[in-house]
DNA sequence: CTAGGGTTAG
């Protein structure tokens, strides 16, 4: 096994361990470093970026000053370090200072000129033409001011080259830094690297500002290996990163998902006497949020508390987002309360995070309270927040609130409803079964020129299908395809579920014709399943092929629908075959659960027909066990759930009526909604009484 | 965007 990062680091930058021998004047050292190494790596191993330990290996041997190495070599076991000579640090505690600008009395004139240059035609000739009209001597100060005011990056770059050619004064670091910053806006990493290499060849020193600009530009261009490479080069030249460069590189590792490296760097920094600022904590919080790692988020909170760093608004926002990703709506809510208690005012991003969390959790009460509070306190709104609130309303089924928001949006000066806003409305009316309103919005979209997207089309098609308005469904589908919408797996699943509900052959053919355009193999499978010449092996092959090409979250719905189609055609044996295939390919994990006292069937993610099929299958299995006189637990239960959505149709009702039809001795549990229970005492006689042969048919 | 780091949408 490769050495762990922390051991590799300790070789180069030893940290005193928190044992009894450690003198108290050592920098605080936590006894536990939180790092969830049980999680699988976030990134595939094929990445080019070497691990931090790999990078620090060459780095440490070249960058550690010799006297430190000598000291370490001479006293390898000593953990004592003279407090007046602080031990080897990984970052400079002093932030690089910037030279103050001398006031330039010609600011106005120069800025005006810079604007002229910025606005001129984007060609070298045009630019040089305007340059000839320069109103003042291009002295160092004047040139710097102009350089600073130019945009876009092409102009900055041209001007920078021009200054160099003129050769009026020596080029200094600041000229490169200013130019690089502009180039970064254009994500011109190659040019930035070119300039950096030029600095090296011309002996112009690269400082922390240069390095942090290079690193963040590489990061924004997703050139993470380049970011790390330049960080390493900085150490090699003997320059210590200050906290700005340091947190920039922390963010690079965080974006790579290298949690261990980030925590290690962070801890090394703290051990060097660094008091991380809110930006560093925001980087950590974001990283743990992306990993959905709640323990990590707690670690960040504890660190801030123990170091006495008060979160600012950005940190709160990042933490809220992270709590949402970690699936902790309750903690997000308390964090928000804490934010308000600390006297901060939430901004658009805060409220967007919270609205998303309440919507996903379907917390209607909190969602409504949030909206009321937003209105009464006049908290800021923007376009994204409007759309997120609309989506939240759609998730929860808040129809009137959504209508109000949509109206507000139309009246607002700064934003027009876009395809997201309309999609939310289509979702609200669609899932509420208000086909008329949904179609009204669909027509309005084409009037105001907002394009339908695949999700909106799916919502609309779903509600038209449920309402049995198949001709309109076909129309919406063809309009969507004509608009260039590429039907995705969800839309196909939606069409397939409508097929399963069609009552007439005619309607079914119309929907299948749509599906034929979107996913012909799926239609072929439906035909194979319903074919007189049914062959399980053929179906199995087709099924396998389709499922492996289907997005993960649409696989089970596909199988559910296919089972429903079989049942609607009274082909119950084939429904059982499909349930078997679905189980075989792992689409129904956790369907059966056993404890010593209770066996249960969890059909919460199954369709009505699939749940019925699973129940029958279970009963057949249990009957066999009874026949073989094997042991059975005291209790049996089947869980349908109640459906968290206001509009959800409730699997539990149909399941209950199916139980009734079978005369199975399951009772609706009194303490747990959506749960049906039977005792062994009641179930066994019933299983025995059923004739063994057509056990699966009703 | 008057030389550098962190946060918003199925």
TrEMBL record:
Composition-biased stretches (Low complexity): 49-64
PPR repeats: 207-241, 242-276, 277-311, 312-346, 347-381, 382-416, 418-452, 453-487
Keywords: Repeat
UniProt-listed SMART domains: SMR (SM00463)
Classification via PROSITE patterns: PPR, SMR
InterPro entries with a match to the protein in the record: PPR_rpt, Smr_dom, TPR-like_helical_dom_sf
Smr domain: residues covered: 601-684
Positions of the UniProt region annotated as Disordered: 35-68
Assigned protein family: Belongs to the PPR family. P subfamily.
PANTHER family on file: OS03G0856100 PROTEIN
Protein name: Smr domain-containing protein
Source organism: Hibiscus sabdariffa
């Amino acid at each position: 096994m490769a050495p762990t990062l922390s051991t590799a680091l300790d070789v180069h930058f030893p940290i005193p361990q928190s044992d009894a021998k450690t003198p108290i004047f050592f920098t605080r050292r936590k006894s536990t470093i939180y790092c969830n190494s049980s999680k699988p790596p976030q990134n595939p191993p094929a990445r080019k970026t070497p691990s931090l330990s790999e990078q620090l290996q060459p780095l440490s041997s070249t960058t550690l000053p010799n006297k430190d190495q000598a000291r370490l070599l001479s006293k390898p076991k000593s953990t004592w370090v003279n407090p007046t000579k602080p031990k080897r640090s990984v970052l400079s505690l002093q932030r690089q200072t910037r030279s103050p600008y001398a006031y330039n009395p010609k600011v106005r004139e120069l800025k005006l000129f810079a604007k002229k240059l910025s606005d001129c035609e984007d060609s070298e000739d045009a630019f040089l033409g305007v340059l000839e009209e320069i109103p003042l001597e291009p002295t160092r100060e004047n040139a710097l001011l102009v350089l600073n005011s130019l945009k876009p990056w092409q102009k900055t770059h041209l001007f920078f080259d021009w200054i160099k050619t003129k050769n009026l004064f020596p080029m200094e670091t600041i000229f490169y830094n200013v130019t690089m910053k502009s180039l970064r806006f254009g994500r011109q990493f190659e040019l930035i690297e070119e300039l950096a290499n030029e600095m090296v060849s011309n002996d112009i020193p690269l400082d922390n500002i240069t390095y942090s600009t290079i690193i963040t530009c590489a990061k924004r261009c997703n050139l993470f290996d380049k970011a790390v490479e330049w960080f390493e080069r900085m150490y090699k030249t003997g320059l210590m990163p200050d906290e700005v460069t340091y947190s920039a590189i922390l963010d690079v590792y965080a974006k790579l998902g290298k949690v261990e490296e980030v925590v290690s760097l962070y801890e090394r920094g703290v051990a060097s006497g660094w008091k991380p600022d809110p930006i560093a904590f925001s980087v950590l919080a974001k990283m743990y949020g992306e990993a959905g790692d709640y323990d990590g988020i707690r670690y960040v909170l504890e660190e801030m508390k123990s170091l006495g760093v008060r979160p600012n608004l950005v940190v709160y926002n990042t933490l809220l987002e992270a709590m949402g990703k970690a699936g902790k709506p309750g903690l997000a809510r308390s964090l928000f309360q804490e934010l308000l208690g600390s006297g901060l005012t939430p901004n658009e991003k805060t409220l967007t995070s919270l609205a998303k969390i309440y919507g996903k959790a379907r917390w209607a009460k909190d969602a409504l309270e949030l909206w009321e509070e937003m209105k009464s306190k006049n908290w800021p709104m923007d376009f994204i927040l409007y759309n997120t609130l609309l989506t939240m309303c759609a998730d929860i089924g808040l129809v009137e609130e959504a209508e109000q928001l949509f109206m507000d949006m139309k009246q607002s000066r700064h934003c027009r409803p876009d395809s997201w806003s309309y999609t939310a409305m289509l979702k609200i009316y669609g899932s509420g079964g208000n086909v008329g309103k949904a179609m009204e919005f669909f027509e309005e979209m084409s009037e105001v020129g907002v394009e339908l997207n695949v999700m909106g089309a799916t919502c609309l098609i779903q509600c038209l299908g449920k309402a049995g308005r198949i001709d309109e469904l076909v129309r919406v589908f063809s309009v969507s395809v004509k608009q260039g919408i590429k039907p995705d797996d969800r839309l196909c699943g939606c069409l397939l579920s409508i097929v399963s509900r069609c009552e007439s052959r005619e309607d079914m053919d119309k929907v299948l014709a749509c599906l034929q355009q979107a996913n012909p193999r799926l239609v072929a499978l439906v035909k194979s399943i319903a074919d007189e010449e049914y062959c399980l092996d053929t179906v199995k092959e087709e099924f396998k092929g389709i499922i492996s090409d289907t997005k993960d979250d649409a696989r089970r719905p596909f199988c559910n629908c296919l089972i429903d189609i079989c049942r609607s055609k009274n082909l119950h044996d084939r429904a059982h075959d499909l349930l078997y295939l679905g189980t075989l390919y792992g689409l129904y994990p956790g369907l059966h659960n056993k404890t010593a006292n209770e066996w249960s069937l969890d059909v919460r993610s199954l369709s009505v027909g699939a749940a019925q099929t699973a129940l029958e299958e279970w009963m057949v299995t249990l009957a066999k066990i009874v026949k073989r006189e094997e042991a059975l637990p005291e209790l049996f239960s089947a869980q349908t759930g109640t459906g968290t959505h206001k509009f959800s149709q409730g699997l539990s009702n149909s399941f209950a009526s199916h139980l009734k039809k079978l005369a199975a001795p399951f009772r609706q549990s009194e303490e747990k909604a959506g749960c049906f229970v039977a005792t062994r005492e009641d179930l066994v006689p019933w299983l025995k009484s059923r004739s063994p042969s057509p056990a699966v048919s009703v």
